[in-house]
């Protein structure tokens, strides 16, 4: 089941943080702390890999709200989509572990905003996820220049480099639909 209570609590905390002057600039990193609960566990008694993706939603929502993007999305009736992701797992997250979720922007191109999430337990990285996200209007992804202009950041640039640029290039070569599933 989706962790609606935990998610709602994180939204309330992000809104309160903004009201207390703890908003973030787009270049900053959001940090949210959650506990690995019983409903997060798989049969190996560690956080389920699918739950990791769901818990990253909490970090992304905090980042969106605290940077002002959330308010802009509501005001303009825009949406936000995830159009691709890649993830690496390095350490297990166990029951009751205190998990810090870090979220920041690692690149922006004409169409996409690339976010990176990471989970940390006791100062050790456990997983990292790279996301391709887009802002939508009427169901279609809009240019990031419109989004940045609406945020008062029209001169801000962060072109994807390094592993982010490599992932973008590699993903562009990936056949769609998947080769083994074509009709």
UniProtKB/TrEMBL annotation:
<dbReference type="InterPro" id="IPR051490">
    <property type="entry name" value="THEM6_lcsJ_thioesterase"/>
</dbReference>
<dbReference type="Pfam" id="PF13279">
    <property type="entry name" value="4HBT_2"/>
</dbReference>
<keyword id="KW-0378">Hydrolase</keyword>
<protein>
    <submittedName>
        <fullName>Acyl-CoA thioesterase</fullName>
        <ecNumber>3.1.2.-</ecNumber>
    </submittedName>
</protein>
<dbReference type="InterPro" id="IPR029069">
    <property type="entry name" value="HotDog_dom_sf"/>
</dbReference>
<dbReference type="GO" id="GO:0016787">
    <property type="term" value="F:hydrolase activity"/>
</dbReference>
